UniProtKB/TrEMBL annotation:
Highest taxon listed in the record's lineage: Bacteria
Gene3D superfamilies, per database record: Endonuclease/exonuclease/phosphatase
A UniProt-annotated Pfam family: Exo_endo_phos
Keyword tags: Hydrolase, Signal
A GO MF term: hydrolase activity
Signal sequence coordinates: 1-28
Species name: Paeniglutamicibacter gangotriensis Lz1y
Protein name: 3-phytase (Myo-inositol-hexaphosphate 3-phosphohydrolase)
Every Endonuclease/exonuclease/phosphatase domain range: 64-409
Length: 418
C-alpha cells in the first residue's frame, strides 16, 4: 500500500508541469551487458514453497511484489541503487532470487525517465548474489510514466489549497513516485504494448466518480489510473502472454466522499472490463488513441498490488470479487506454505482465509490479501505461493521487523504451463 513505508517526511522538489506528462517515452530494452558477482554457496535451503514447480514439462513462474522501493525525493532511488550497498534493495533482491520468477512486476518502484533506477536494481542487485543466492538475469525490462506526482492544477482533496501530493493526478510528491517496473527473461513485444495512463475517469460508463466532490472542470482532467494500467505482451516459446499490470490507489486517505475508495473500485473494474467479456471494455482507449479491450482468446496474467481484499480492509469488495470471478481467468489462491501467513495474524482487519500478502502492522489493517497473480483459464496452473517465512525459518529476516527489511508486502508467485 502506498504511503506505508515512506522513509522520511521530507517534501520533494517542485514536480514537472502537467504539459510534460506523457512526453517521456516508455523504455523497454534488453540488457546490454549485465554485471555478475561470484555466486557463493547457498546457505540453508529456501522456503519449501519457493521451488514448487511441476516436474513434468516446462514451467513459467510469474510474480508480483510491491517492493516499497520508493523514496521521498525525485532521483533518490536511482542514487541509492547506483551502488550495490543499499540494504533494503539487497533484501528485496534476495527475495526475488530465492523465488526466481521468469516474469516479475515490482510495484512502488520510483520511475525516472532514463530508467536509471530500474537498470541499476537489475544490474547491481538482481544480477549479483544476495545472501548466497544465485543471481537472476532479466534481459528485458519495461518501464513507463506514472500519474503519481503530476500536478492536476485543482484542489482534489478539498483542503482549500491547490498543490501537494494529494492534488496530483495520482498521489505523489514527485512525478513517477510509486511507479512500476516489469522484468522478464522472455522478449517483450514493445511494438504492441498498450498503456492507459491518460484514460479519464469520466469516460468510464456508470462509474463511481463522485461528481458532488469533483466539479465539471476537474472531471475534465482527472485520470482514472492513479499510476497507470499496462498491457505488456511477453513472448514465451512462440506464444504471446499479455501481462496486465496495475497498482490501483489505496481505498483510504480520503474524506466522507470516499473518493479513493471509489477510484480503487473503478480502477479494478477497468482491469476487469479490459479483459473483454461481453464487450464490457469497448469504451476503453489507450494512450495512442486505440479503443477496445484485450483481443478475445488472448493468454494473459493480471499482476499487481490491487489494494483490495474481498474479505477485509477498507476497499469495496464488489470490484475485486467481480475480477476474481471473471470466467476468463482463474484465481490460484496462493498461500504461504509452512510460513507465517496464517489466520489470526495482525491486529485489525484480519484476513482469516490465510491468503494474506501484506502486513500493515500494529494499529493498521493487519494482514490483507491485496497482491494478485490471476492468469487466464487458457494457462494451466501448476503451483502458487506467497513468500512469507516465519520466525526461525530461513529467510525470515528478510520480512521481519518494522519497518521490514524489505517491504510490508510479500512476493506472490504462480507457476504456469505456457
Amino acid at each position: 500500500m502506498v504511503r506505508k513505508l515512506i522513509r522520511t517526511a521530507a517534501a520533494a522538489a517542485t514536480v514537472a508541469a502537467l504539459a510534460l506528462a506523457g512526453a517521456v517515452p516508455a523504455l523497454a530494452h534488453p540488457v546490454i551487458e549485465a554485471r555478475h558477482s561470484t555466486v557463493q554457496p547457498n546457505r540453508a535451503a529456501p522456503m519449501p514453497y519457493a521451488q514448487g514447480v511441476d516436474s513434468v514439462g516446462p514451467s513459467l513462474r510469474v510474480a508480483t511484489f510491491n517492493a516499497s522501493l520508493n523514496r521521498p525525493q525525485a532521483g533518490q532511488l536511482a542514487a541509492d541503487l547506483a551502488s550495490p550497498l543499499d540494504a533494503q534493495a539487497q533484501a528485496v533482491a534476495e527475495i526475488v532470487q530465492r523465488n526466481a520468477p521468469d516474469v516479475l512486476l515490482l510495484n512502488e518502484f520510483d520511475y525516472d525517465a532514463d530508467a536509471a533506477a530500474a537498470e541499476s536494481f537489475r544490474d547491481n542487485y538482481l544480477a549479483r548474489s544476495q545472501g548466497g543466492q544465485s543471481p537472476v538475469d532479466y534481459p528485458y525490462m519495461y518501464v513507463a510514466p506514472s500519474n503519481t506526482g503530476i500536478p492536476s492544477g485543482a484542489d482534489l482533496d478539498g483542503d482549500g489549497i491547490v498543490g501537494g501530493p494529494a492534488d496530483a493526478l495520482g498521489y505523489g510528491d514527485f512525478e513517477g513516485q510509486y511507479g512500476m517496473v516489469l522484468y522478464s527473461k522472455h522478449p517483450i513485444d514493445t511494438a504492441n504494448v498498450r498503456t492507459f495512463q491518460n484514460f479519464l475517469w469520466k469516460d468510464m460508463p456508470d462509474s463511481q466518480l463522485p461528481t458532488e466532490h469533483y466539479d465539471k472542470l476537474v472531471r475534465g482532467v482527472l485520470r482514472l489510473p492513479s499510476k497507470s494500467l499496462w498491457d505488456v505482451p511477453v513472448t514465451v516459446g512462440g506464444k504471446t502472454i499479455h501481462v496486465i499490470a496495475a497498482h490501483p490507489t489505496p481505498p483510504v486517505f480520503d474524506g466522507p466522499e470516499k473518493r479513493n475508495r471509489a477510484r480503487n473500485h473503478d480502477e479494478i473494474r477497468m482491469i476487469n472490463d479490459y479483459l473483454g467479456a461481453d464487450g464490457a471494455g469497448d469504451y476503453i482507449y489507450d494512450d495512442e488513441g486505440k479503443t477496445g479491450a484485450l483481443e478475445a482468446g488472448s493468454d494473459f496474467v493480471v499482476l499487481g498490488d490491487l489494494n483490495a481484499d474481498a474479505d477485509a480492509g477498507d476497499s469495496s469488495p464488489e470490484a475485486i470479487t467481480a475480477l476474481r470471478e471473471n470466467p476468463l481467468l482463474q484465481d490460484p489462491l496462493p498461500a504461504a506454505q509452512q510460513g507465517a501467513n496464517h489466520p489470526r495474524r495482525g491486529v485489525a482487519g484480519i484476513n482469516n482465509n490465510g491468503l494474506g500478502t501484506a502486513d500493515f502492522g500494529r494499529g493498521s489493517s493487519g494482514v490483507l490479501r491485496v497482491d494478485y497473480v490471476l492468469p487466464s483459464v487458457t494457462l494451466p496452473v501448476r503451483n502458487a505461493g506467497v513468500y512469507w517465512p516465519e520466525a526461525g525459518q530461513d529467510g525470515a529476516e528478510l520480512v521481519s521487523g518494522w519497518p521490514p527489511a524489505s517491504s510490508d508486502h510479500r512476493l506472490v508467485w504462480v507457476d504456469l504451463k505456457p
